[in-house]
User: Fold this.
Amino acid sequence: MVLLLDDDDDFRAALADNLRDDGHTVEQFGCAADVPLLTSLEPVSLLIVDQQLEGESGLEFADRFHATHPDVPVIMITAYDSRHLRAEVARRDFIMLRRKPIDYAEVARLLPPRS
Assistant:
């Protein structure tokens, strides 16, 4: 299952549709507060998270997520790129940072095999 967290409803819906069209199960949320208890999620194969979120940042959420799911890859996306953010993402060994708008073909190459 791909966990998708982004506060842009249109972007999130389009990305989720593309993922589903490729055969992936997707759980999508608009803010970190809406995500259920991390330990209760069905097996997650990938986290795609936007950095700019209301309340908890994407990086903060990814840190919490990674604490309970250390082997799951994380893709950070943002509309507001910076060297500092790139360094923080790299320091955490998350897959990479993608700047919006993102090319779905590029995301598709990073997806784990469907289970």
Observations:
- The first strand starts at residue 2 and ends at 5.
- The chain has a mean pLDDT of 87.
- DSSP finds four helices and five strands in the chain.
- The radius of gyration is 13 Å.
